[in-house]
Design brief:
The protein is built from eleven helices and 16 strands. It is an alpha/beta fold. Helix 1 runs parallel beside helix 4, helix 1 runs parallel beside helix 8 and helix 2 packs parallel to helix 8. It binds flavin-adenine dinucleotide (FAD).
Length: 326
């Protein structure tokens, strides 16, 4: 029986192990971090996640975790807002629950988890973001859960180089998560309460009825980059180890599970890495192009003028990946 060796047991690594086991191989994951634990993430999932989880036999278990459902999307740029309804509901689930679901399932199905950093060469690299900042200003992310009135919308607030997402997750909790430039955080003394309560009037009104139920978490520096242009010849990179794109698309988790699952199947079946990367490119090329354009537009401040004219559904449809099973 083939053994598939995996660096990382986050979403991508656990999905790789589950897919390898379902393809008849055995799986070994190395990961020094214990779960469940909270992670900096918007915890917003687009409908693409359903077929990706179905492929791993996990959709029913996912629904049993009681994810929140979102029917609307609202974008606020400075003082201007616009809103659209989703054609299909989006979902909200904490990383505490989602990571536990995937890693637990991998172990239940027989994957071995070694609680150490990966010691050497592996078949699948799924150890998350490890891109090195070069030149550009460093970005950082932050997040906390809040209690209070629950909405059925995902709301994104863009201001002064920051954006902050507010959306429901399970059990009546609301996730508040954002990212921005180091210089902006320094100006505020890294005071996240001050940022969400004073940085933008519409955001301050949105969070006023809520009360924070956990300490703020932060992460960074964040670097948007991809290794899809020059991938390694043999190793299969999956999830954020392959690429980290701007999280405003809300698809990083679905892509991590999709690439992880596909890498697990390719490794178990001994299929060539070049074919794997070709399949990933076919799914992500259009999204990557639009994300690069929208990030550039954000940096020039254009959305402030365009937002009232363009419905959020248009931005949403442009940044959809095609996560087809291969
Ligand atoms: C601010 C922010 C907001 C976001 N919001 C969203 C959102 O709303 N929706 C969405 O879909 N995505 C979002 N994302 C993206 C999403 O969080 C990632 O795409 C996702 O976590 C990628 O999963 P992964 O398994 O590749 O990596 P990770 O979840 O980072 O897992 C990597 C694992 O590898 C382990 N590891 C690290 N180094 C080693 C090593 N040397 N050896 C072995 N193991 C190692 C780590 O302990 C970890 O368990 C957001 C990201 C950020 C930063």
């Amino acid at each position: 029986m083939a053994l598939v060796r995996i660096a990382g047991a986050g979403l991508a690594g656990s999905a790789a192990a589950i897919a390898a086991l379902r393809s008849g191989a055995s799986a070994r994951m190395w990961d020094p971090s214990r779960i469940p634990k909270h992670k900096v993430c918007g915890e917003f999932l687009t409908p693409e996640v359903q077929p990706v989880l179905e492929e791993l036999g996990l959709w029913e278990q996912f629904l049993a975790t009681n994810p929140a459902r979102m029917r609307r999307m609202k974008l606020t740029f400075g003082r201007r807002s616009s809103e659209s309804r989703f054609a299909e509901s989006a979902l909200g689930l904490s990383r505490y629950r989602l990571d536990a679901l995937l890693r637990g399932e991998a172990e239940t199905r027989g994957a071995q988890w070694i609680v150490e950093r990966v010691p050497g060469r592996v078949d699948i690299v799924a150890h998350g973001r490890q891109f090195v900042p070069a030149g550009r200003e460093r970005l950082f992310g932050f997040k906390a859960h809040f209690r209070g009135p629950v909405s059925d919308a995902v709301e994104l607030y863009f201001f002064d180089g920051f954006y902050v997402g507010v959306n429901p997750v399970e059990d009546g909790l609301t996730n508040v998560c954002g990212l921005g430039p180091e210089s902006g955080f320094k100006r505020l003394g890294f005071d996240y309460d001050a940022l969400v309560c004073e940085g933008n009037r519409a955001l301050a009104e949105r969070v006023r009825p809520l009360s924070r139920s956990m300490d703020w978490l932060s992460t960074g520096p964040l670097v948007f980059d991809t290794r899809l242009t020059t991938p390694p010849v043999e190793e299969l990179l999956a999830g954020d180890a392959l690429q980290f794109v701007d999280p405003f698309t809300g698809t990083g988790m679905a892509i991590a599970i999709w690439t992880g699952g596909m890498a697990g199947r390719f490794a178990a079946e001994g299929r060539p890495a070049a074919e794997y990367y070709q399949s990933v490119r076919a799914g992500l090329e259009r999204q990557n192009e639009w994300c690069a354009r929208l990030r550039a537009a954000l940096e020039f401040g254009w959305p402030r003028f365009l937002a009232p004219l363009v419905p959020p559904a248009w931005f949403f449809s442009l940044t959809r990946p095609k996560l087809e099973s291969r």
